[in-house]
Design a protein that fits this description.
By secondary structure, the chain is an alpha/beta fold. The chain folds into two domains: about 220 residues, Metallo-beta-lactamase, Chain A (4-Layer Sandwich); about 110 residues, Nonspecific Lipid-transfer Protein, Chain A (2-Layer Sandwich), CATH 3.30.1050. Helix content is about 30%, strand content about 25%. The protein has eleven helices and 23 strands. The strands form four sheets. Strands 8-7-6-3-2-1-16-17 form an eight-stranded mixed beta sheet, covered by helices on one side. The two termini are about 25 Å apart. The model has no long low-confidence stretch (mean pLDDT about 90).
Length: about 400
């Protein structure tokens, strides 16, 4: 049995016969986040063919670098897709609406996907989830972008020691910030909330063997191989014209009254909290368009972009984010810049993106949804890893 890292955050698990059993977080073609993210190494055709034969695909959360719909179309309709149990979750409803087989994984319950493989989903309060994969010789802990508290990681370690004692543990975790933590400017100088080294320290407190990107690991022997950087399959000849086409859209877009109404409605959902956090307002610089939002009046003003902070965003991306209700995605791009005015601390702006993301997910669109999200968050606060691996029920079809 072996595992292989694929694409961006993808993990492929094969059984002892080489049969593809499980794939996670599919992004294997194209780009995401308005063509600002591209893969370092696109999978070869024979690897894509193997992925198309996989039995199950788990999508840990809704960000497009993990829930990449174009890649799902490449995988095809024969895969059984699985998503975490999250309040107001869109993964399973969307895939089911596309005519695909899709099921929700119950939280903190082992489910069998193979004679020798069980999986367990751990949802988090912020819309992410952790995936555990138990095999005969190793337990895989796929944190992806999640950053659980130290106490939760300790509960996880204790639970795995009881459920799968003595097994090798393999950890998959992001190694750099996938957010705006390094996108702040003050007086034209970069202000960073978090460095890459902090991600290494997060996972390396205990003795850890660090593997290379695009690794295949034999779970029984521990033998690993990897794709050297000089053999990465890149697509520069197709990337450049697509980026240029995206940039051309930014010069043509315009913002009408309907766009401003949608933006005001999004911001007004947290209006009074924003008034306390940003009393001077929030500015937007969108190519040639300047906007200022006043939380006290709940109105947008054209022609000025003053405020406690200013978001600099390409116009087409901003218009799309507002139109489709994924404003929080702007905080994960490689082009959004945040200009900090006066003594504004970047953590306040980070909190702003958390607030709009909660609204994107529907958690703050009604009092009922908010209560549902709060109950969910409290219920998953403690990590209870069951021991009954041998009694794991098969995934419901």
């Amino acid at each position: 049995m072996n595992i292989e890292t694929v694409g961006h955050a993808g993990l492929l698990v094969r059984d002892d016969h080489g049969t593809p059993v499980l794939f996670t977080d599919p992004w294997i073609s194209g780009s995401c986040y308005w063509r600002s993210w591209w893969l370092q190494n696109y999978p070869a055709p024979e690897l894509v063919a193997a992925l198309q034969r996989v039995r199950y695909c788990v999508i840990t959360h809704e960000h497009p670098d993990h829930f990449h719909t174009a890649s799902i179309r490449v995988l095809g309709p024969d895969v059984h897709y699985l998503g975490p149990d999250l309040p107001n979750g869109h993964i399973v409803p969307y895939l089911s609406g596309q005519g695909l087989r899709a099921s929700t994984l119950p939280a903190f319950k082992w489910r069998a996907i193979h004679e020798h493989i069980q999986i367990l989903s751990i949802p988090l309060f912020n819309g992410d989830s952790v995936l555990l994969v138990n095999t005969p010789s190793a337990v895989i802990v796929n944190l992806n972008d999640a950053k659980p508290r130290r106490g939760q990681l300790q509960q996880l370690a204790e639970g795995l020691e009881a459920a799968a004692p003595g097994k090798t543990r393999i950890l998959l975790s992001s190694y750099s910030p996938a957010s705006i933590v390094n996108s702040f400017l003050r007086h034209d100088e970069r202000v960073s909330l978090r460095e890459k080294s902090s991600y290494v320290r997060y996972i390396a407190d205990n003795p850890t063997r660090l593997l290379r990107p695009y690794t295949r690991l034999d779970l029984r022997t521990g033998v690993a191989s990897f794709v050297p950087p000089e053999q990465y399959r890149q697509q520069e000849e197709t990337i450049v014209p697509k980026v240029q086409a995206q940039e051309a859209l930014d010069t043509q877009v315009s913002f009408d009254d309907a766009d401003l109404q949608r933006l005001a409605a999004k911001l007004n959902a947290s209006r009074w909290l924003l008034a306390l956090m940003f009393p001077r307002g929030i500015g937007f610089e969108l190519e040639d368009t300047r906007l200022r939002y006043s939380p006290w009046s709940g109105l947008l003003q054209r022609g000025t972009s003053s405020g406690d902070f200013v978001l600099r965003v390409p116009a087409q991306a901003f218009k799309d984010a507002v139109q489709y209700g994924h404003f929080g995605d702007l905080g994960t791009t490689m082009f959004t810049m945040v200009v900090l005015n006066s003594g504004m601390h970047p953590r306040r702006v980070y909190l702003f993106f958390m607030l709009v993301t909660l609204h994107d997910y529907g958690h703050t669109t009604s009092f009922r949804n908010w209560l549902t999200w709060m109950r969910h968050s409290i219920g998953i606060h403690g990590w209870r890893i069951p021991r009954n691996l041998s009694q794991a029920e098969p995934v419901s079809r």
